Amino acid sequence: MTLPKTLQQYLLTELKDHPERYELAMLMADIATIGKLISARTNRAGLTDIIGLASSTNVHDETQAKLDIYTNNLCKDYLSNTHLFAALASEEEEKVVDLKNPDGKYVVAFDPLDGSSNIDVNMPVGTIFSVHKKLDTVPAGDEKQFLQPGREQVMAGYVLYGSSTMLVFTWGDGVHIFTLDVDLGEFLLSDAHVKIPDECPYYSFNEAYAPHISKSDLRFLTKIRKHASKQRWAGAFVADFHRNMIKGGIFFYPAVDTSGEQDFKPKLRLNYEAKPMAFLAEQAGGAASNGKIAILDIVPGTLHERTALIIGNKSIVKEAL
Ligand code: P6P
After folding, report:
1. Fewer CB under 10 Å: which end of the chain, C or N?
2. Residue 122, C-beta contacts closer than 8 angstroms, at least 6 positions apart
3. How far apart are CA 316 and CA 320, in angstroms?
């Protein structure tokens, strides 16, 4: 009988052959802990004051914050306490957080709780992370740490809080999936070297925006509607991306003009949504672009920059370019 491999066993085995990945392995252990804590809370969201801003207050007489703030604080606290990382960027933090670890070799960007509005209606949410080597040419807390192209990432992944909790990541040699066994309290390796299937049964696009996208994006949408037989829109990028990676599919979030003034604006964030997921997509044999160039080749201009995104089945993403 082959015993399931725990995340800890996987990381220790990897460290034997790649001792230089020590800090990244420690980050994975922290992300696993954060994933367990968030999984436990999302599973009880209906029973506690996590939903919305609670009326209750904590011991410091502070109003309890929403789960996304709670998750953000978890990510900051864990990364600060390992004393291994130089800086953190987060959707919930306007500026880069200098973690005051001058010897830290890496910087980490998080979307602490992607799709957090799903919490109140018991739909899936996720935590996304992206890791770059720290630049020695600028201070650790400088925004430029996070203006590196996605192709420079050393690790990326997500935790998906769905019907089960899954930790999915890559550090450059394929995409691996660990599933949380809640009885054991362990993430167990459930799939290694995941590849996006060639077929493309699903497309993920918010069809409410069809009348509000550019003519060229509408032409591409018409193409993907022909390729895919089913439309799925979970309201959480991580959930749609995960389904499309496992079953085959394409996720499309173009720039949208909600004003009627031909003012097309992208929504998804480059640094902690598009870049990490593009790293995973390419490692799984897929592709990701903004409709003009590969996501991983974009050089971000600002920390919270947004981008149009087409990600998933490689042949279909290529059709958009
Ligand atoms: P819309 C969640 O807010 C998010 O950033 C992604 O996770 C999700 O795919 C998208 O926005 C949903 O956007 O415009 O359909 O609400």
Report:
1. N
2. 45, 46
3. 7
Instruction: Tell me which residue of 174, 161, 312 sits closest to 241, measured CA to CA.
Output: 312
Alpha-carbon distance of 220 to 319, in angstroms, equals 8
Question: What's the helix, strand, coil split of the chain in %, to 5?
Answer: 40, 25, 40
Check if 236 has its Cβ closer than 6 Å to any atom of ligand 1.
yes
Report the topology of domain 202-320.
D-Maltodextrin-Binding Protein; domain 2 (3.40.190)
CATH architecture, domain defined by 7-191: 2-Layer Sandwich (3.30)
Q: Is the CB of 10 under 6 A from ligand 1?
A: no
Alpha carbon of 193 to ligand 1 centroid (Å): 27
Q: What is the pLDDT of residues 195-232, one digit of tens each?
A: 999 999 999 999 999 999 999 999 999 999 999 999 99
Domain boundaries, the chain: 7-191, 202-320
pTM tops 0.70: yes
Q: Which residues pair with 89 in a beta bridge?
A: 109
Token pair, residue 89, equals 């960027």
Q: Which two tokens stand for residue 255?
A: 């720039």
| Helix (H) or strand (E) run with residue 240 in it | helix 237-247
